[in-house]
């Protein structure tokens, strides 16, 4: 199964919502997240970190967007701590691991993995070094700060980039 075929029913709904937004005005990666009921925690975190304006900019951006369930799976109290105003810098660091300053569609990522003999290194805006691999037909994104996460929906296109849904939170190296 290719990266582009990892869509779920929820992702198709979100993609439709994003396409509808794009018809009215160029949607941003933030608009895609706001339009998804599975990304309310991400939107809350982006707002708390003061990154909404940046991600509504020209881009291009690729956002690996953790679901609400992904944030809920963090250790008890971790999300609450990150959302405290005094921890804004740490929150920005975590969110920075999820944004790449380029538009990388599923086909682009798949090609990078193939060209890299099974893995591709990705550097994020937060200067996190991620590794993209493919296992059992699914794209996995891993970083120094934790276990690789799975891309569960791909190519949710926006006017300033693309969103790929992931099932975990990518953490910066300690």
From TrEMBL:
Residues 1-22 form the signal peptide. PROSITE patterns: FAS1 (PS50213). It holds the Pfam family Fasciclin. InterPro entries: Adhesion/Biosynth-related, FAS1_dom_sf, FAS1_domain. Gene3D superfamilies: FAS1 domain. It comes from the Bacteria. Transmembrane segments: none annotated. Keywords: Signal. Residues 26-170 form the FAS1 domain. PANTHER family: FI19380P1 (PTHR10900:SF77), PERIOSTIN-RELATED (PTHR10900). This is Fasciclin domain-containing protein. It comes from Paracoccus niistensis.
